[in-house]
Amino acid sequence: MSVKFTILGSGSSGNCAYVETAEARILVDAGFSPLQIRKRLATIGRTPENLSGILITHEHSDHIAGLLGLADKFQIPVFCNRDTQDATVWALKTKWASKKNPMLDGLDGTEHLKSKINWQLFTTGAGFEIGDVSIETFSIPHDAQDPVGFLLRTAHGNIGFATDLGHTTKLVLDRIRAANVLVLESNHDVKMLQDCPRRAWSLKQRILGRHGHLSNVAAAEAAAQIMSAGLRHLYLAHLSRECNKPELAEHVMAEQLHHIGATHVRLQLAAQDVPCETLEI
Ligand SMILES: [Zn+2]
Ligand SMILES: [Zn+2]
Fold it and tell me: Has residue 122 got a pLDDT over 90?
């Protein structure tokens, strides 16, 4: 059986991807409402009920918005590190979910919330398995408690995830170099961000900082540094709506791929509102 990969959506309003192998059905992040995740899974003929696990990169709401509704209702194991668990529980409890999610009504505290979900904690840097998928975790520089990227090793190829990072470290580059399919952040055009009248200076500094988000040019530089004959599919992800344009992000990366002679790489863009076409590897 081939491995199927679908980015259900990506951007600052929500991130979620689906990987299916012979023995595992995995979500990477759950950053849309449970209903929205259900709808998007339905477009590929899948439902949340029989997911084998949800991997969480970090606790920002665009990565965990649907987590409680899915994981609690269907007892889907949630894989994250301890700091992300703590921060996620805190976020679910105090920030926004209590207003939006009636399932939280009546919960009496953090311990209750912790015990409602089947948490499977990993240590950042350590690997673990879900069915026939081996998962590597690595630290990424981003303004969350202990954010990570993932490399999912399957029988048909490796799928790497590196979004939400202010810059690329040697560790990140080393880990994603093994990817045959790579989801790489191409968040903003630096000039569009600097010129954006609707963003406060402090927010611009945050996004541009070393623990913010990767620009189009930084993504292109990263691609050049990790390029291998094995990289077949490159998805540009987590594009900013206001400070980027899909055609601009694509152009910057396409120029780079052309420049370094990486004509074997298929370049695709992940969108916020609609799932990508399913990739079979
Ligand atoms: Zn984030
Ligand atoms: Zn994000």
Answer: yes
**Cα–Cα distance between 149 and 140 in angstroms, integer?**
6
Of the listed ligands, the closest to the CA of 65 is 2
Q: How far is the CA of 143 from the centre of ligand 1 (A)?
A: 7
Ligand at shortest distance from the CA of 147: 1
Cα 237 to ligand 1 centroid, rounded to whole Å = 13
Q: State in Å: Cα 2 to ligand 1 middle.
A: 31
Give 9 Cα–ligand 2 centroid separation in angstroms: 11
DSSP string, 28-64: E---S-HHHHHHHHHTTT--GGG--EEE-S--SHHHH
Q: Residue 223 above 90 pLDDT? A: yes
Q: From ligand 2's centre to the CA of 183, what distance in Å?
A: 13
For residue 72, what pLDDT is reported?
Answer: 85
Q: For residue 162, how far is the Cα from the chain centroid?
A: 7
What ligand has the least distance to the C-alpha of 166?
1
Instruction: Report whether pLDDT(108) > 60.
Output: no
pTM value is 0.94
Strands (E), the chain: 4-9, 16-20, 25-28, 53-55, 78-80, 119-121, 127-130, 133-139, 148-154, 157-162, 181-185, 233-237, 266-269, 279-280
Three-state DSSP at 150 gives strand
Nearest partner of 221 among 252, 178, 244, judged by Cα: 252
Q: Residue 177 is encoded by which pair of tokens?
A: 């170099």
Distance from residue 1's CA to the centre of ligand 2 (Å): 32
